[in-house]
Amino acid sequence: MSTSTVLLVEDDGHTRERLAGIIEATPGLSLLGAAESLTSARKILKDGLPDVLLTDIGLPDGSGIELIKQVRANRVKSEAMVISIFGDEYHVIAALKAGAAGYILKDGTTELIGNAILQLIDGGSPISPPIARHLLKQLQPEQSPDSASNEPSLLSAREVDVLTAVAKGYTYNEIAEMLNISFHTVSSHVKHIYRKLEVNSRSEAVFEAVSLGIISLDG
Predict the structure, then answer these.
(1) Helix (H, G, I), strand (E, B), or coil: what is residue 80?
(2) Which helix or strand (DSSP H or E) is residue 34 part of?
């Protein structure tokens, strides 16, 4: 069985370690290197291109989109895919225009992420369902302002508070203390949020809520 090399670029140490483990545990994949920044990734690329570049977009010293352009501009065939905690329309489209053939969310299962990389190598274009759904919504006719204003909010005010805190990286215990509610209540709110947004993970919930304008990550 042939082995395909993967260059992983992710600035968060814990996430980088997890994703590197997934790559190494997936038959047919080999970890060429794991970089935490644009600069360190470029140093690895000087020694040769990987079969697959798996990169986050927001890096401490630049954008992963720059790496995608660099890899795709080379004559040697290399594939590129973004792996992110969420993806707004601007960054998704920018990554695809730069040459990325896939865009997936970070907190997918080991099997899902490994299979997405293999699918990319086989010529596929893996895109996480929430991102695909959001892109499809952009192609659909917009509602009139009157009809949109008459729609009730999908989440309650308290659920919005909880999800906003989740999006900022706070733990359930920290959220409970901030909002003066119990850990159990926070957990219950999160379950209701997942059900209402029809998602199964934190990153999907954040992505969907940002896409729908329910929460904002600004500030």
Answers:
(1) strand
(2) strand 29-35
Position 154, amino acid: L
133-185 confidence digits (pLDDT tens): 766 666 555 554 444 444 446 888 899 999 988 888 788 899 999 999 999 89
Both 116 and 8 in one domain: the answer is yes
- Domain assignment present for 57: yes
Element (H, E) at 198: none
Domain boundary among 79, 112, 137: 137
**Is residue 12, in this structure, part of any structural domain at all?**
yes
Strand order in the sheet with 52-55: 29-35, 4-9, 52-55, 79-84, 102-105
Higher pLDDT, 188 or 85: 188
Q: Tell me, yes or no, whether 217 lies in a domain.
A: no
d(CA 50, CA 176): 44
Q: What is the pLDDT of residue 148?
A: 43
Is the pTM above the cut of 0.85?
Answer: no
Backbone angles phi, psi at 15, to 5 degrees: -65, -40
Domain boundary among 94, 120, 137: 137
Q: Which domain holds residue 18?
A: 4-137
Alpha helices in 77-169 (DSSP H): 89-98, 110-121, 129-139, 145-149, 157-167
Residue pointed to by tokens 């920044």: 37
- Is pLDDT above 70 for 82? yes
Least confident among 77-81, 121-125, 149-153, 200-204: 149-153
How many CB atoms are located within 10 Å of the residue 141 CB? 5
